[in-house]
Write a structure and sequence with these properties.
mainly alpha, three-stranded antiparallel sheet, 13 helices
Length: 309
């Protein structure tokens, strides 16, 4: 085992046990750093020299899209900062490297409001059509999942990691553990969403307590991100919706629809758990419905009449 591999393993242990990073971040760091290790070993070059880092950055620009490149550079930069802090290396090569590059701004994909209506109606109809008790219980859970995704803008990973203690229906509060182990509290304001969660808890309370997670699968284990994706796809097909819908699109729709209702963007930032308002501001570019309404009804040109009287 070479020194670089040992250093990466020690850093990943530090991230896991000292920094308490979530599993997704650890997985990304592992993939990115092992890829870096494989490349520098293949090239037979010193890993922490300026030319080596530049060569690696150039290579990943050939292989990946900007979003992946940005993540891989961030993973490597964090690793090297750790090595410098621990005095394993004497200087940080990133201090002499310009890593800025033009990243296209991809606007988040949202679900049209009428499509959300259709999807929810379809799921509730499926509950009434359930032929077995197992089907009925499964659909009750599916309703609770999708209602909560839309009602709170919660990330799919956050939803799947909820515990029974995080969901307080008496006070109608949801405690969410977000990125970087940051907590946020969000209110569940709609009575039908509360009813959906109450129905779910009534059916699954025992399983939830045994499993330790709020949303559970048929094996009495934690519901996975992938299971939620399959669930949404199934109901999209049943509803004959001609749109690929992902769990994250409910989050985008939550933010965009609130903006169109004139909710202050700072409140939306807090509800989404964004550390920077810049991240939330991308939704201001999406809300074309609101833009049209403003320019149609509020523009001063409406005060100017060219009719000859």
């Amino acid at each position: 085992m070479n020194n670089l591999e040992i250093q990466i393993m020690e850093y990943l242990d530090y991230c896991k046990f000292r920094k308490n990073l979530d599993l997704k971040t650890l997985k990304a760091y592992t993939i990115d750093l092992r890829q870096f290790k494989d490349m520098v070993l293949q090239w037979n070059i010193e890993p922490f020299e300026k030319n080596s880092i530049n060569r690696y950055i150039t290579e990943i620009h050939k292989l990946y899209k900007p979003k992946s490149i940005k993540r891989k550079i961030a993973s490597l930069k964090a690793f090297i900062q750790y090595l410098e802090f621990e005095e394993i290396i004497s200087s940080n090569p990133f201090n002499k490297i310009n890593i800025k590059f033009r990243e296209p701004q991809l606007l988040p994909k949202t679900i049209p409001f009428h499509t959300i209506q259709t999807l929810l109606k379809t799921i509730y109809q499926q509950k009434d059509l359930a032929e077995t008790e197992y089907q009925r219980k499964s659909i009750i859970r599916d309703i609770a999942v999708i209602e909560l995704l839309f009602a709170t803008g919660i990330r799919i990973s956050e939803l799947c990691l909820l515990t029974p203690e995080d969901v307080n229906l008496a006070s109608q509060n949801l405690l969410i553990y977000g990125k970087g182990s940051k907590e946020r509290m969000i209110q569940i304001g709609n009575p039908e969403v509360i009813q959906a969660l109450q129905a779910y808890q009534h059916e699954f309370a025992d399983t939830m307590n045994v499993c330790g997670y709020y949303f559970v699968n048929r094996l009495k284990k934690r519901l996975s991100d992938q299971s939620v994706r399959f669930m949404i796809n199934r109901y999209v097909d049943i509803a004959s919706i001609n749109l690929h819908i992902t769990p994250h699109m409910f989050r985008h729709s939550f933010a965009t629809l609130l903006l169109e209702e004139d909710v202050d963007i700072r409140y939306i930032q807090k509800m989404l758990g964004h550390s920077s308002i810049t991240t939330t501001e991308i939704y201001t570019h999406v809300s074309m419905t609101k833009q049209k309404d403003i320019l149609t009804s509020k523009h001063p040109r409406n005060l100017i009449s060219m009719n000859k009287g």
